[in-house]
Amino acid sequence: MHSGLETDTQPRHGGTSLDELRTVAGDIHRAVSSVIEGKSEVVRTAVTVLLAEGHLLIEDVPGVGKTMLAKALARSIDCPMRRIQFTPDLLPSDITGVSVFNQDSRTFEFRPGAIFANIVVGDEINRASPKTQSALLECMEEGQVTVDGTTYELRRPFMVMATQNPIEMEGTFPLPEAQRDRFMARISMGYPTGTAELDMLDTHGGRSPLETLRPVTDAPTVQRLAEHVTTLHASPSLRQYIVDLVGTTRSSSALRLGASPRAALQLLRASRAHAALEGRDHVIPEDVMALVAPVLAHRVLPSAETQMAHRSTADVLQDLLRRVPVPTAAR
Amino acid sequence: MSRARPLETLLAAVAVLVASWPVRTLLIGDTWIRPVLLLLALVAVIGMVGRAVGAPRSLTAAAQLVGVLGGTALLHLHDHLAPSQLPGAIGDLFVDATNTLSRYAAPAPATPGIVFALTLIVPLVAVLVDLMSVGMRMPALAGMPLLALFLMSTSNTGEPLNPVYFVALAAAWLLMLAQGGMQLLRRWSSTEAYSRTPERLEDRFGIAGYSSTARWVGAGTVLLAILVPAFLPHLPPRYLSDGLARSGSGGGNVGVVGFSDRLDLEQNLRSRSQEPVLRYTTSDPDPPPLRAMSMSMYAGGNWVHDDPPRERRGTNNERLPSPDGLGSQPITLFRTKVSANGVDSPIVAVPWPVSSADMGDTSWTYEPSAAMPRVSDRPDSYQITYSKLGPSARPNGSHASAPAVPSNTLRVDPLSADRVQQTADGIVRSNDSDFTKAIKIQDWLRDPSRFTYSLTLKPTQVVNGAPLDPISNFLVTRQGYCTQFATAMVMLARSQDIPARLAVGFLPGTADGQSYQVRQSDAHAWPELYFPGLGWTRFEPTPGVRAGTVPEYAGGSSSTSGPGAGRESQEATDTRTSTAPPTPTAPSADTRQTGGGASEQSWLSSSTTWWTLLVLVVGALGALVVPVAARWRREQPLRRAQDGREHVEGEWHALQSRLEDLGVAPPAGRTPRQAEQHYRQHATLGGEGRAALHRAVRTLEASRYAAPTTSPETLEQDADRILRDVRGNASWSVRTAALLAPRTGRLAVRSGLRAVLSAPGRWFDRRGRSGG
Q1: How far from the centroid of its chain's Cα atoms is residue B729's Cα?
Q2: Any B CB within 8 A of A237 CB
Q3: How far lies A322's CA from each of A318, A319, B602, B671, in Å?
Q4: Between B645, B671, B698, which is nearest A330 by CB?
Q5: Per-residue pLDDT tens over the stretch B654-695
Q6: How far B747 CA sits from the closest chain A CA (Å)?
Q7: What's residue B158's pLDDT?
Q8: Do B179 and B259 have their domain in common?
Q9: Bias category Basic and acidic residues: which stretches (chain B) (predicted)?
């Protein structure tokens, strides 16, 4: 299976950082793939988001391995990982942490919440109350927590991987647009193929493969690589392409709500990571095309006509992608 | 528009009228126009009425037909409407028309028969045109009958037709087409729709642009139709009608000509073909014309050739008896060998009078009194020994003592007898000897200040309401060619009781090294006068460039004119006297004209070469237009490239258009990698070609998207490699097309043309917007 990480493309430019990045990314990919079988594209997008320092929203029916993916990705990196099971009675302070009065020292002492980890897995995020969900806002966007007027820096790298179930809507609080916008990408797992499922039954019959998963890298390495990704070259014409694409979502009659400027920003960041994963030191339109659906689909709202036609926003985005001309000349 | 469709009916009638307009050049007088107009109007009115009442097409056409026949009968046969008289009267008119056609060349008098025929033919064509263009709504098809009517005039007129006739007809026909096209457009919608919004200017100027483009195309086509023939080498306008010499398929390397047995004095000289007819060598330094036959009988503007009387079988190289009347005179014998002969049997062109002949295997006869051989089959080569009178040859006796000559050689044409007699009396004195009279007449005709040599005749003069006969017309207009000059001399001599006849043959032709070459255009006619002791003697009254040399005994000098004198010069004949460059060394008028003729001749042949060259060059340039346009379009981005990146883009563009020319369409996908996928699928590439394509695509990609610090690269070698692969696998037809008519070139030319063509439409559009 073509993963995109085992690409035949030899890196043409760039030095050791890119080579290291490819090696590390390939290791993570292999590690995660040993747990999540037959989902190379999904894993790849997840790794891309990790390197772009974004947050990932995994949305699918129960039992396809959403949580497994999140945990496997977290486990493959040697770093603190926290898992939060979102429930209606979960309080914001459970996430951010709370100041507790210490009787001994007679001072307020900050007890960090679940958010203080490099990778936070938020399970069934739409089951928590909006109040709790919004507690995630500041953390995800700014990488910091403010409790009782004191601001605490979060760890770097910091990645939130939230899962949600689109089927059981009773007693849930769908994520508001603002919060959805903070996730860099949304992916769906989808059902595994027949052979992949058969393999899964074989290997997962005994103990969970998650337990045998050994970390392949550590947080500082990931952080360093992520910082390198931001230096990749995106030519002016390519940046224009992204602006054109995002602008088209705003003017399209098939969409009620177009993509935000933040979406454009995150699309560029994700594209850089995607290019880095292929060992390129510059972004090409293919990078953008590969990420338009995961990065933009959850940010835009379909119009009534689109909904009536049972078209997903991803379909609409693919149409737009065909219409927007690719920049040819270097500007 | 009403059902009668008056506008289209009117256009059809006008088109027919315009098509028959050049008939004016064929006829003297306009008496035919009124009845034709009347009947055209009748046809149009019947057509409109028929359509207005909704009669079927066939019925309308039948009614028009009946109207035309009835109208013609009423106009021309109102005195003979009784059923017993009618057929006879119609027959009389037709006979009259036929007679006029056979007797007169254009312009002919408008006799009742001709007017009758015209008032029948033109309205009948009008019925056809009306039926096609209005009834059947096929105005394009109506061009056929219009063309037929037009050709009736063009093929019969002696002179090139004024282009105005063509332009008028083309304009009328295009108007019919345009009207028909508009009708067709209007019929597209079956119900009438009204716009609720006010009519926009674009709506109106959309149609305006459409029709302005149509006007532009129409005008351009007509202009081209006039200009292109003018700039192309073309056959003489009278090529289709037969003339003095008739072309056929020849044996050897000469074309075959035959002689018609009639010579119409009123015809313009028709055959201007440069086809060689004869090739010969001769011992004569100044060869005489080659004689083919003689004509004594003149009637109604025509010469009819003499019936050969008793003939004797000829034996090769046996000396023939002297012709009638030739006594003991100082003669020189010369020998002429004809190596290629295109004159059809029984005529054989020979220098005259023949002393002995060798026709090879061909059997031949001769007329004892004329020393003129005739052959049963066309000999390819033959030898003739002939005699030539010396400069001092003079007649020795009077006509009274001479043996009887045929009486018709003294008969003056009664139509012109008075004028001829008057003219001759003004030239000669009564006490001159006959020979002196003949030389005086010859010199009078040769005077260039008096007569103009021209292959084109002046229009027939009308005196006292009647057109002049051809001889009088020549004496009045003083313009003509050898036939007119010779005929005039024959008649003038006959009026002085000197027997005379017309000889027809060829000028000596052009010297071509040792041999002479005679072309069809060298056909010539000259008078032969009978003198006791001399027999039938050649004179040369035709002045100028297209005439034989004046015989020495008749005042000519053998040294003044070279053998090449007489070559025809068609283009310059009308302006011969004014354009002939004076040659300082040649004192006489004769040589000056000869020199002029020679220089014009060389100009003529070189101009033909130039024309051919020009056509070739234009053709080659035309063939180059598309490839050059393709190259220009292909390398446009490359030329404009400012830096390395744009250079790579330009090279990629050139590669794409070259592949397109080789039949690999450019990719619909847009990124370099999509292009690579596309070309991998659609172009037949080998392993190396694929690798080159991969490299080229990566180069392009890097040039487009990588950081500008990377050094610029070129994909030229890779492009060459790819093209070599694709070209190697393409069929030869694809390769040829890519070379000669590449698709990108055609597109470039087409877009250029479209830009030019749409210019007037855009202009209209702009004007409409700013004005409205």
Answers
A1: 50
A2: yes
A3: 6, 5, 71, 11
A4: B645
A5: 888 888 888 888 887 678 888 888 888 888 888 888 999 999
A6: 22
A7: 59
A8: no
A9: 304-316
Q: Determine the Cα–Cα distance for residues A317 and A306; give it in Å rounded to an integer.
A: 12
Extract the residue ranges of chain A whose pLDDT is less than 50. Answer: 1-14, 330-331
> Model confidence over B28-43: pLDDT tens digits?
788 889 999 999 999 9
Specify whether the CB–CB gap between A143 and A153 falls below 8 A.
yes
Q: Note whether B573 and B689 are same-domain residues.
A: no
Is the Cβ of A288 closer than 8 Å to some Cβ of chain B? no
User: What span, in angstroms and rounded, lies between the C-alpha atoms of B527 and B504?
Assistant: 9
Q: How far is A28 from chain B (nearest CA, A)?
A: 27
Same domain for B277 and B173, yes or no, is: no
Residues A238 and A203 in one domain: no
CA B132 to CA B129: how far, in whole Å?
A: 5
For residue A323, the domain's CATH number is: 1.10.8.80
Same-domain pairing of B497 and B641: no
Please, which pLDDT band fits residue B103 given cuts at 50, 70 and 90?
A: low
**Domain-terminating residue out of B138, B153, B186:** B186
As a whole number of angstroms, the distance between CA B330 and CA B683 comes to 91
A225 in any annotated domain: no
For chain A, the domain total comes to 2
pLDDT tens digits along B709-764: 656 678 888 888 888 888 888 888 888 888 888 888 888 888 888 888 888 888 88
Specify whether B369 is located in the same domain as B411. yes
Count residue pairs from A and B with Cβ separation < 8 A.
54
Distance, in angstroms, between B656 CA and closest chain A CA?
13
Task: Output B240 or B128, whichever has higher pLDDT.
Answer: B128
> Which residue of A9, A239, A282 is the best one to mutate when testing the B interface, meaning the one whose CB has the most B CBs within 10 A?
A282
Note the pLDDT tens digit of each residue in B377-406: 888 888 888 888 888 788 876 665 556 677
Q: Reduce the secondary structure of B211-248 to three states and give it as a string.
A: HHHHHHHHHHHHHHHHHHHHHCCCCCCCCCCCCCEEEE
CB atoms closer than 10 angstroms to residue B691: 14
As a whole number of angstroms, the distance between CA B760 and CA B208 comes to 10
Q: What's the rounded Cα separation, in Å, for the pair A215 and B609? A: 92
Domain of B64 in residue numbering reads as 6-186
Give the burial class of A226: count Cβ atoms within 10 A of its Cβ; 0-12 exposed, 13-18 middle, 19 or more buried.
buried
- Residues B674 and B565 grouped into a single domain: no
How many structural domains compose chain B?
A: 3
| Domain-embedded: residue B117 | yes
Give B511's strand partners.
Answer: B516
Residue A202 and residue A120 share a domain:
yes
Please tell me the total number of residues recorded for chain B in this structure. 772
The predicted structure's pLDDT at residue B172: 92
pLDDT digits (tens, 9 = 90+) for B53-92: 988 889 999 999 999 999 988 888 877 777 788 888 888 8
Residues ≥6 apart with Cβ < 8 Å to B87: none
Tokens encoding B81 = 């409407």
Looking at the structure, tell me whether residues B596 and B722 fall in a common domain.
Answer: no
Q: In angstroms, rounded to a whole number, what is the distance separating the alpha carbons of residues B504 and B302?
A: 13
For residues A211 and A250, state if they share a domain.
no
CB contact under 8 A, B707 and A282: yes
Interface pTM (ipTM) of the complex? Answer: 0.81
